[in-house]
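USER: Note each token:
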Amino acid sequence: MIVTGPFSSGRQAAGQPRLPTPPTGWPIGSYGTYEEAQKAVDYLADNDFAVQDVTIVGVDLMLVERVIGRLTWGKVLGTGALSGAWFGLFVGFLLALFGSGQGISYAPVLVGLIAGVLFGVVFAATSYASTRGRRDFSSASQLVAGRYDVLCQPRNAERGRDLLARLAMGTSG
């Protein structure tokens, strides 16, 4: 099984561990944002550095939940109806497409739409009512780190540190 995240492609790279393991290597840079760490690794790649020896490690992980807005019955039911409508249309089109041999009939599409809206509203209302007002807001969660360390295998760590020092000083070569 390959575990993927927001910064991974989902493919197993050659030579990488198949199970989650702590990173290895020597620290060659530390950055306040992922974007800065990514820029550092990109700089290494642009200078013909063996970037396969590099790992970006998020340290001091935090789960940040950003509140988007207040939930009301109107928003909950509207979102449920819209979500159900999309699913109902999808099912209705599939039934219409494969249901009869004489062209597309619009009756299954209409029935799917109505049933989808009905079920979407019922499920959204049931879910929202079960919280009993304990969560009257919507939010988006994100995993972030306090800092991002760039690690490198010992065989290339000194050269990597020198290159990143040049990047920090603003010299190109």
Residues 1-66+146-173 form a domain with the Alpha-Beta Plaits fold (CATH 3.30.70). The longest helix spans residues 73-99. Strands lie at 26-31, 54-70, 137-152.
